[in-house]
Write a structure and sequence with these properties.
Bound molecules: adenosine-5'-triphosphate, magnesium ion
Oligomer: single chain
CATH architecture: 3-Layer(aba) Sandwich
Order of helices and strands: HEHEHHEHHEHHHEHH
Number of helices: 11
Helix content: 40-55%
Strand order of the largest sheet: 2-3-1-4-5
CATH class: Alpha Beta
Number of domains: 1
Number of strands: 5
């Protein structure tokens, strides 16, 4: 089954209300989606091996979402077949003092995957135009010159981010951006589950409940951000996230599709190297 890619053309206006968080694109049940995910995981594993061997491209997967949308679970399931040697996950939290002493892209730049590898950003520099926009008082910690936090300021950040992503793409780092689009009702259900189930208590903090109060502000910040940073070279994928099984199937499909489009090949071995291998083979067989 081909899943819709949930990308908008860069020149089209994105309105979050046009994206249904509970959409499941024709899957009749969880089992069907799971089967597809299993197939995609196998395919991803095959493609990752060639990505690693050819070492020409890196793949950066950026995950953004409201709390409890399923970032962690999606990363865990989708990447379950991936060779850990060629993959790194990094979760970006509130910046440390050392990080605040640098420009805001610094901490992310250090984590961009090498060529041949897959890098996953669990949250990212996009927090700088999301949580920071919803709570502009956070900017005071950044000690920026000429503080005037108007539209120009945010537009400059969008410009920085677009330029940075263009730079990455030009240098062989493919940038795929996912927004896991959970509904406010489903978030409430998942929060209650985290409170009611003791084994899940650790996943819930009072900060999550506090941020929920800013739901509409976040939705607006996200919407503006999509419209400013949904570029041809680094598009956003707005993934329905009320059904976890669907989220995982959709994300894996997009990753596989992207890797396939790179037409990856194992490095060609030179005539000399082939001859050398034959000599060694003979030597080993005669041991
Ligand atoms: P979980 O789903 O397990 O809650 P999480 O990604 O929400 O995972 P937390 O440790 O709960 O992880 O939260 C990280 C927090 O750090 C988020 O509230 C996020 O908004 C905040 N954060 C990340 N980057 C920045 C930033 N650049 N400036 C300010 N806050 C940030
Ligand atoms: Mg959290």
């Amino acid at each position: 089954m081909d899943i819709k890619c949930f990308t908008s053309a860069p020149d089209k206006v994105i309105r979050l209300k046009d994206f249904d968080p509970s959409f499941t694109d024709g899957f009749r049940n969880k089992e069907e989606a799971k089967e597809k995910l299993e197939n995609d995981i196998q395919e991803m594993s095959r493609l990752q091996d060639i990505l690693y061997a050819s070492s020409k491209y890196g793949l950066l997967l950026v995950f953004q979402a409201m709390d409890a949308a399923g970032k962690d679970g999606t990363i865990k399931h989708v990447m379950s077949g991936i060779n850990p040697q060629g993959c790194e996950v990094y979760s970006f939290k509130s910046p440390s003092n050392e990080e605040l002493d640098h420009d805001y892209l610094w901490r992310c730049m250090k984590r961009v995957p090498e060529k041949g590898r897959i890098g996953i950003f669990n949250r990212s520099y996009y927090e700088e135009v999301l949580v920071v926009r919803v709570h502009p008082e956070l900017l005071s910690y950044q000690n920026l010159p000429n503080p005037k936090y108007n539209d120009d300021f945010w537009n400059n950040r969008f410009e920085d981010i677009n330029n940075y992503e263009k730079y990455l793409v030009r240098n062989g780092i493919i940038v795929l951006k996912f927004f896991l689009n959970v509904s406010k009702d489903e978030q409430k259900k998942r929060f209650l589950e985290r409170i009611n189930n003791e084994d899940k208590n650790w996943k819930f903090s009072s900060a999550d409940a506090k941020e929920r109060k800013y739901w509409d502000d976040y939705q607006l910040a996200y919407e503006i951000m999509f419209n400013k940073t949904n570029t041809k070279y680094a598009p956003w994928h707005i993934i329905p996230a009320d059904k976890k099984w669907f989220t995982r199937a959709a994300v894996s499909e997009i990753i596989v599709k992207t890797l396939k489009e790179l037409s990856l090949e194992y490095p060609k071995v030179s005539k000399e190297h082939k001859e050398e291998l034959q000599t060694i083979k003979k030597m080993l067989e005669e041991e």
